[in-house]
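WARN retry 2 of 3 for item q-0093 after timeout on previous attempt; input resubmitted unchanged.
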Amino acid sequence: MADSKKILVADDESHILHVVSLKLTNAGYTVVTASDGQEAFELASAQRPDLLITDYHMPQLSGIELCQKLRQYPATTGIPTIMLTARGYALEPADTEQNGISRMLTKPFSPRQLLAAVNEMLGIVMQAA
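OK item q-0093 returned
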């Protein structure tokens, strides 16, 4: 069941945090938010979410730096990650694999597209409404 899964969403754009949080909460997930990479690292370390959704460009730590830092600690190394990027910012496959990034989504993305990616990554099969 989705409600047993905790998702950390890190983005410095408040409207993205709001839309993503609302969509995931409505789908039954527990959502924790951070507005910069350092806050996200601290929350991930303390709360050990089942999934991380992070923006690429953020203050304090970028999404890549956040992923690199999380991979240094046994407690957070296995957190699957969805990276949100602005159009035109692509990461090499080696960068995504090396930093534990499971999926890339380009902004603007649809909340439905994001939810489908989250459900797939967490192995949640949603019943048709």
